[in-house]
Amino acid sequence: MKVKNKIVLAYSGGLDTTVMIHWLKKNYNAEIIACTVNVGNIEDIKEIEARAYKAGADKFYYIDAAEEYVKDYIFPAVKANAVYERKYLLATALSRPLIAKKIVEVAKMENTKILSHGATGKGNDQVRFEVSFNILYPGCKVIAPWREWELRSRSDEIEYAKRNRLPIKATPEKPYSVDENAGHISYEGGVLEDIERGYPEDLFRLVSLPKKITNDGETVSITFSRGIPIKINNAEYTPLQLLNELNKIGGRNGIGIADVVENRLVGIKSRGVYESPGLFLLHQAHQELESITLDRETMHFKEIISLKYAELVYYGLWYTKLKESCDAFVDKTQENVTGEVKFELYRGTIKVVSRKSPCSLYSAKLATFEKEEVYDQKDAAGFIKLFSLPYLSFKEK
Asked: Is 125 designated active site?
């Protein structure tokens, strides 16, 4: 008797991957191993497990990687100031290499080299998953149902699910593609595809709309050690706890909504709406702290690295030599990025209250417009003359 192939599917529990369990089993006549990796988005794992089995899974794995995600993926990106195209904080992109790593680990335990994912043929995630799969598990085979099946839309998926009595939550009225993790919740599709329309006000789960907030705001301080956030309001947290707490603080004060039209890796412009209150606060605080602890040339060069780092993450190139090299540079820059930044949050706005660090390069004595004895303003004349020298034209008389 021929032994069935095994397919390990990265299973989120959502519409796409629930339909895929049934479709893969039917079309490949294989055992389907559903693997759910928690990156801070799983509340009821029993419900997801039950959904997987009801859809036809032969085996189910649950891996809790939420703490690892924040510590080893979110925090390095914060240290690098990695923001794609000025607005996208990369939380989805950062989760993909970690999920891919865990899927590969399960595949090796199950002695199979066939992997599958729920990413579409138009998006970035197919690249992020498959590049990571190929690097971590050379010779593996990847099945991407969105590039093979007859279904052409989320509406088709919903009909397929109804026809085969699959347990799903998506409806034609709210067909959004939603990705949630500890770093953000993202929304794509549906009415959001019309860039001439604003986003629905009932969309968000984490962030209160500023115009609906009635509180008087709140003050929050974030403490860093060598670029890593360790405290909120002088209380210590684990990485996951810290980000979750900042999500609550930022969310109730209307912080962290981004409406972005971004350039996907495959060349398509796509609109995404993101709510990432905690991650937004971390980025803002980290940059404020760097402003007083990094010298000018290091800071300016790091801005170049930050752009490249964001691209590498967005493109799914996490497990590459260039990304490792960028990490080494970033880590060196963070040796003195220690201190505290305090914000006042008020109805969607952020005001810096204070910045302080034992490694601060800021000198009030040098910067003051008042009388001081440490800076001779006459010296500036010679500096300006020499600074101008390369741009002057000298002609023989």
From this structure: yes
Domain annotation covers residue 387: no
At 156-190, the pLDDT tens digits run 999 999 999 998 876 666 667 889 999 999 999 88
The reply to whether 357 belongs to the active site is no
Question: Domain tally for the chain?
Answer: 2
Out of 177, 186, 270, 306, the active site residue is 177
What pLDDT does 393 receive?
Answer: 80
For 295, 312, 334, the CA distances from 298, given in Å and listed in that order, are: 6, 21, 11
In terms of Cα–Cα distance, which of 102, 123, 92, 103 is closest to 6? 103
Residue pair 61/35 in contact (Cβ under 8 Å)? The answer is yes
CA proximity to 147, closest of 167, 127, 174, 168: 127
CA angle 42, 50, 166 (to 5 degrees): 105
- Specify whether 177 is catalytic: yes
pLDDT tens digits, residue range 89-132?
Answer: 999 999 999 999 999 999 999 999 999 999 999 999 999 999 99
In a domain, 320, yes or no: yes
> What mean pLDDT do residues 268-286 have?
97
Residue 240 to residue 99: CA distance in whole angstroms: 17
Of 96, 128, 154, 355, which one is the catalytic site residue?
Answer: 96
Across the range 268-272, mean pLDDT stands at 96
Domain that holds residue 161: 6-174
Q: What is the pLDDT of residue 369?
A: 83
The label of the residue with tokens 């794609």 reads 84
> Considering 12, 95, 125, 186, which one is annotated as catalytic?
125
Q: Quick check: 1 pLDDT over 60?
A: no
Catalytic residue among 12, 16, 179, 355: 16
Same domain membership, residue 134 and residue 77: yes
Q: Identify whether the C-beta of residue 133 lies closer than 8 Å to the C-beta of residue 115.
A: yes
Q: State how far the alpha carbon of 138 is from the alpha carbons of 102, 129, 130, in Å.
A: 15, 13, 11
Are 193 and 47 in contact, with CB atoms under 8 Å apart?
no
Q: Does residue 321 sit in the same domain as residue 284?
A: yes
